[in-house]
Amino acid sequence: MEKDILNLWDLKKSDCNRLIERALTFKRDRKSLSKYRPLVGKSMGLLFEKASTRTRISFETAMNQLGGATIYLNPKDTQLSRNEPIKDTARVLSGYLDILVVRTYSQKIIEDMAAWASIPVINALTDSYHPCQILSDVMTIVEKFDTYEGLTVAWIGDGNNVANSWINISAILGLNLILACPENYMPDPEIIKKARNEGCGNIKLTTDPVQAATNADVINTDVWASMGQESQIEARKKLFKPYQVNASLVAHAKKHAAIMHCLPAHRDEEITDDILEGPNTLVWPQAENKMFMHKAVLEELLIESDR
Ligand code: CP
Ligand code: NVA
């Protein structure tokens, strides 16, 4: 694998499959692996410019359980807040840390960070991508259905960072993905183009949520306004209303269709409470699985690549 995980384009299908299998093993064998400490002596920095509950805590717990140390870096408390350049910060942190997990705004920031860092840099969400989320989401699908092959995943709502990463993984793994988004809120056209030119997935776009939901095996959604878009919340609430994942929309999907949401959710906005909490919800294992996937990612980047 590449040094960094900035998006999923650099991963091959075999890399994704290996990480998914390893994450499932970490979950299944959690008792027998409870003393597995391959990362003793390694340190992970977490530089988060946006809020996080799941990603940050699951990365920290994953590293702690594998024996490594974690250092949370609030950018406001570092010299980044006083305009120290990213290229200087990245080189200095590379001297102290073994790996750096970054949540930030533009993809360019994390690309610059990775270009100047000699240690692996992991994208914990940017405005463009959320790669580790989608790796663990596909793990959750495999856990539920035993495979991702042949399944149809529907994305309903905003064509945002999480949607972009779904397009990314669908192109790599060959998933059937159909996205229903309002006309001016489609995913990044460059990412769609790349997926269609270079990928093997079957990726469709529509503005019709019923078309996307029909016969889907998985219904996936996310907030209508992502972090950084707070000023658009009220306008988006009106515009996205037809894209709410509710009982009447889910009725078009297959009977067993799993409901996914990376969380945090806004109940009765993008998803109704009865569907989020309903019998087909996968959101709680989906959240839990992030920790197992992060263990697989840390092991891969900090050990496997040394072998
Ligand atoms: N799904 C997710 O990334 O959640 P957090 O923002 O809490 O990390
Ligand atoms: N699209 C959301 C995902 C949060 C995990 C955001 O960027 O805020």
Q: Which SSEs are present, and which pair or pack?
A:
Elements: H1 13-28, E1 43-48, H2 54-65, E2 69-73, H3 86-96, E3 99-103, H4 107-116, E4 121-123, H5 131-145, E5 152-156, H6 161-173, E6 176-180, H7 189-198, E7 202-206, H8 209-213, E8 218-221, H9 233-240, H10 247-250, E9 258-261, H11 273-276, H12 283-302
Parallel strand pairs: 1-2, 1-3, 3-4, 5-6, 5-8, 6-7, 8-9
Helix pairs in contact: 1-5, 1-12, 2-12, 3-4, 5-6, 5-12, 6-7
This protein binds phosphoric acid mono(formamide)ester and norvaline.
Account of the 3D structure:
Strand 3, helix 4 and strand 4 form a beta-alpha-beta unit. The protein is 42% helix and 14% strand. It has 12 helices and 9 strands. The model has no long low-confidence stretch (mean pLDDT 96). The strands form 2 sheets. A 5-stranded parallel β-sheet has the order 7-6-5-8-9. Strands 2-1-3-4 form a 4-stranded parallel β-sheet, with helices on both faces. The protein has 2 domains: 8-129 and 287-305, Rossmann fold (3-Layer(aba) Sandwich), CATH 3.40.50.1370; 133-286, Rossmann fold (3-Layer(aba) Sandwich), CATH 3.40.50. It has helices at residues 13-28, 54-65, 86-96, 107-116, 131-145, 161-173, 189-198, 209-213, 233-240, 247-250, 273-276, 283-302; strands at residues 43-48, 69-73, 99-103, 121-123, 152-156, 176-180, 202-206, 218-221, 258-261. By secondary structure, the chain is of the alpha/beta class. The radius of gyration is 19 Å and the shape is globular. Norvaline (NVA) binds next to helix 6.
